[in-house]
Amino acid sequence: MSELGMIIDIIEGTTYAMTPLVLAAVGEIFNERAGIVNIGLEGIMLLSGFMAVVAAEATLNPLVGVLAGIATGAFIGLIHGYITAYLKGDHIISGLGINLFALGGVAFGIEAVWGVRGYHTPPDAAKVPDIPVVNISPIFIAMILIAIGTHYLLYRTSMGLKVRAVGENPEAADVVGVNVERVQLLATIYGAALTGLAGAFLSIDWLTAITKELPAGRGFIALALVNFANWSPLLALGGGLLFGFFWTLGEWIKNMAAVKAVIPVTLMNTIPYIATLAVVAGLIGKSRPPRYVGRPYKRE
Amino acid sequence: MNDIIVQMKNIVKVYPDGTVALRGVDLEVRRGEIHGLLGENGAGKTTLMKILSGLLRPTSGEIYIAGKRVHFKSASEALKHGIGMVHQHLALVPAFTAYENIILGLPSREASRKKIEKLMEETGLKVPLDALVEDLPFGVRQRIEIIKMLYRNVDILILDEPTTNLTPIETRELFHTLKELKKRGKTIIFITHKLREVLEVTDRITVLRRGRVVGRTETAKATPEMLAKMMVGREVVMKIEKKPAKPGEPVLIVKDLWVKNDLGEWAVKGLSFAVYSGEIFGIAGVEGNGQTELVEAITGLRRVEKGQVILMGKDVTNKSPGELYRLGLSHIPEDRHKLGLVLDMTVSENSILGIHRLKKFLGSLLNLKWGVIDRHARDIIERFEIVAPGTKAPARSLSGGNQQKLVVGRELSKSPRVIVAAQPTRGLDVAATEYIRKLLIKMRDEGKAVLLVSADLDEILQLSDRMAVMYEGEFMGIAKPEELTEERIGLMMGGYKMEQISSKTSPQPVESR
User: Fold this and answer.
1) Is the ipTM of this complex over 0.90?
2) Longest C-alpha distance within chain A, in Å?
3) Domain annotation for chain B: domains and CATH numbers
4) pTM, whole model, 2 decimals?
5) Nearest CA to CA, how far is A291 from chain B (Å)?
């Protein structure tokens, strides 16, 4: 393989690896800005990935699959948002519930739908097609637009002002007539819908498979990315790029016979984590979470 | 001028925990006046105004705005009726700019920089619109809050203790603004406990005490003495028998102590004092002048940045609460729910918090000896006359007074040499208050040193052998209570040092109040 080919490979790989991370992280940033923590990203990715395969395979239309993934995410967001914003439930417990439910639900679902244990590959017709010539996914393009758009929404619109105010000081928002619970609910739905898109991307685009290990920890990496990015969608885009690059690089190096003989694969798997952590920790000093994040807001 | 814009009739408010805050209050405010709502801590002023501004719902009673009956479900509904409240802790988002705070919640077409600038021009209330609120001093933040209300066309502006955190110059500017707003036809309700301010700036005054209206007057006809009498009400004051103090050695010495608050600002600025065995040293002052931070620093709960704390002759600066306890320090914390008790644990369990490692409570396997602990708890219950269903009842099931007695009982059961008591009678009924005050005096007579920090001036005057008045992290003066007049204490609470005022006023006995 030529060196140019190698570089193109790594760039392509990076666009794929970063997409689900950035989507989920940007979504989570949005709802955390409104004060709602959702640690159920992993579970949402898994459930949405599953529903995307089911829908895409049934209709042989990948767009329907993508929409099903988004809708699944949004629905889970609705439940989580209702529990946390309206019922003032514990954010972590509810998020944990999502992850646990997804693990059991999808393992069962795969068997129930396809009669196999653990692994199913959808037909090609259900796969999201690449953009011709450049071989990148349309969801990658969407991801970039979504990250920039979400940043704009948060920092340049009165709607974003409301969202951030609710996460910083819900009482101040309440006094001037912002419906705190509704803003939190909508933000949580939006955040989870983006994670749902990430799940669909995994199952009917990049990996084109559904297993109960589909997200493989990406939901939790996205959670970490939220912190690294200091709750800024644009920084999450940058952080996702870094992580995606090192991840792809790591995969590539792993396959070189010479390296394989010397360094254990498991050790090389840590490359993207350590590299991203090092770069991001160096770039961004002290991160500052939204002041009211994760705390139920109660009047009186 | 004479028409009534706000009318509140027979307002009663009982909080979910059973506390009765308002017992049938009537309030009338005229259009275009500055109306003073005067009362001590806990009189119900803030609760009444939170009801008017829609933050709380009354248990019963009626509210009329310009003659029309209203039922507010939220603060924003009250805001739509032109009622806005500036809270003591301002409802601003610290991480936002002034501009963002002002337009928060408005549809984007109503957010206009030009209009805000024009409003600032007209009212003379100037703030830097693009500065982050967290970087601005308190006085400016308050102005932002007022502009925020005016920009929403508020006609009735409620200010809750607005001068608490202001410098004297800022206070003067605020009063100027209020008079300016009055000229523009705004109605202002001014909540305060400061006599001088209410006399200076208001047109009429309503005085509240323990959830009832005890007086209404035109400001022009009011005197400070008469307002003070209404506000405090002498019938509840009890005389406490006190033998003269026999102070011994200095057992708690604080030298040039510097402490920061949670926001990283200096809260205690170079305090030095000593508390002797056999005396009660009282610290008075309006809350929020660094008393909490001082107590936390002395009791090992907050970092001392500079200076020294010496307990029983040992340097204990930045030592842990456990070490301080072993040297003989007991702490009755100001918030019994947060720091004093674990509400869901039983009376027995609470009775050994902090002393649970004592040998007498532990068996050979480091197991807790419940028999001994229950006896210890029963002992406290008996000695301190606590009304409790039993030692196995959760602390939550006790009344406020009995909870506090439990805290006090536990702390005193440690047989301390030095007792730090912060707001020891806050929220307690008369009987419990009297009990705890007498207990503190008894401890003093037994030769213990008591550091008493209280926002209740009566308490300080009654109990202290020597007292200091704290203002913005410094002592304005240290003296014996009988050497100070009400007026001089008031001046010190307002930021005048004792040296500055002693020449101007002649001392009078405290009882003249």
Assistant:
1) no
2) 68
3) 4-236 (3.40.50.300), 240-328+417-513 (3.40.50.300), 335-415 (no CATH)
4) 0.73
5) 9
